[in-house]
Amino acid sequence: YQLLLTQDESAYPPLGRKMILCYQLSFFIECKSPSSPHAGTPSLVYSLNFPHSLTSWTEDSPDRVSVALSPPYMSQAWASEEVHHHHHHPEHHEELQPAVIPPLKKERDYTLITKCFVEFLGDLIFVFAGSMQGYINSSMDSILHAAFAHGLTIFVLVTSLGHISGGHFNPAVSLAGALTGHLPLFHLPLYVVAQLLGGICGSLMTRAILSKTEFTAILGGATLLSADTNTWYQGLISESMVTFMLCHTILNSAMGSSDKPLAPLAIGFTLTIDIIATGRITGASMNPARSLGPNLIGWAFMDTIPYGWWEYHYIYWAGPIIGASIASAVYWLFERREKRIVP
Q1: What is the pLDDT of residues 103-147, one digit of tens each?
Q2: For residue 80, which of 32, 44, 43 has the smallest C-alpha distance?
Q3: d(CA 42, CA 226)
Q4: pTM listed for this prediction
Q5: Which residue in 118, 129, 119 sits closest to 151, CA to CA?
Q6: Angle between helices 188-209 and 171-179 (to 10 degrees)
Q7: What's the mean pLDDT in 21-33?
Q8: Buried-most residue among 80, 115, 183, 246 (CB within 10 A)?
Q9: Which tens digit of pLDDT belongs to each residue from 37-75?
Q10: 225, exposed or middle or buried, with CB in 10 Å at 0-12, 13-18, 19+?
Q11: Exposed, middle or buried by CB within 10 Å (0-12, 13-18, 19+), for 242?
């Protein structure tokens, strides 16, 4: 660009070659008829007059060159200063005029219906994957297999759908979001209904794929308290603790943070750790939608229901509610970036 502005008249004949050189250096140079710069060009456009008397230009040649330069490389003030200091033909110079840059299109917001559908779809996939992973070779470590299956699934779901609905896929997470002000209260019941319906449909998909014998063998993918070795309060404490860990991670890495590139990974790993830690006690559900769907569909299609199927089902509601509430209280007290109670 400076080469073009600093040439004297004797150097104008090779101007075309310099224009090609500048183009190769990523400066787009366009010859056009004398008029104002194109409106709508997505860069700053400047117009320069060149004399008609040059032997290298014909009568039909345009007398104006538009130089389009992106704002990071050329500001209007810099361009004006260079022209006034280096151009040798001020009588042919016109004041530089930037083109009108059209405003960027505003992204369309997602409606509440869309957000609820995404929560429904996410829970359908989550419960389906979590139930189907139980249909494995008996020689494999079932807890480790379940942990990574659930963790990877939630990682993928939060990464792909989190920007639409927040990527809750869990009534306990939605409760924590509502308690901390990250989810409007009137959205909470709609989110929960969508999540529960998604869990039921995910379990139906599992039943549609597996035979009745296979479906019964995995207990419909249900998460159950090991009543033979654990008591109800151990199960309640277990579900409360792992739900607290999950909601605590989500509140600090996703909901309460403006920098979220690693949030899906953190959430997925937290879920994996929780299942490894307490999977043999309660199945580490942490999610009423994950528990209700398989329980309902299993109850409808299985001939024999084991003890504790409904007797201890309340653990999978009370535990996540307690865990989400404690995580929200800790977040309000110590961790919220704005308006936390303890400085």
Answers
A1: 666 778 999 999 999 999 999 999 999 999 998 865 567 899 999
A2: 44
A3: 64
A4: 0.70
A5: 129
A6: 170
A7: 47
A8: 246
A9: 444 444 444 434 444 444 444 444 444 444 444 444 334
A10: buried
A11: buried
Is residue 1's pLDDT more than 60? no
Place of tokens 């997505």: 42
The tokens for 281 are: 């006690």
- Order across the sheet with 64-69: list the strands: 28-32, 64-69, 44-49
CA dihedral 333, 336, 338, 343 (to 10 degrees): 40
Return d(Cα 123, Cα 150) in angstroms, integer.
11
User: DSSP secondary-structure letter at 219?
Assistant: G
Spatial separation of the C-alpha atoms in residues 321 and 141, rounded to whole Å: 30
CB neighbours (10 Å) of residue 343?
Answer: 4
pLDDT digits (tens, 9 = 90+) for 240-273: 999 999 999 999 999 988 788 899 999 999 999 9
Hey, what are 39's tokens? 């409106």
Tokens 């494995």 belong to 136
Strand-pair category, 64-69 with 28-32:
antiparallel
> With 80 as the cut, is the pLDDT of residue 187 above it?
yes
Q: How far is CA 197 from the centre of its chain?
A: 23
Indicate the length of the chain as a whole number.
343
| Secondary structure (3-state) at 48 | strand
Q: Tokens 């090991």 sit at which residue?
A: 226
- Residue showing tokens 């994950």: 290
| Contact by Cβ (8 Å): 221, 150 | no
Three-state SS at 45: strand
Write the CA distances from 109 to 160, 164, 270, integer angstroms: 17, 9, 30
Query: What does the alpha-carbon distance between residue 96 and residue 89 come to, in Å, rounded to a whole number?
Result: 14
Q: In a 10 Å sphere around its CB, with 0-12 CB exposed, 13-18 middle and 19+ buried, how is residue 132 labelled? A: middle
- Checking if the pLDDT of 333 tops 70, the result is yes
- Pair 246, 286: CB distance under 8 Å: yes
- Written as six digits, the tokens of 196 are 């529960």
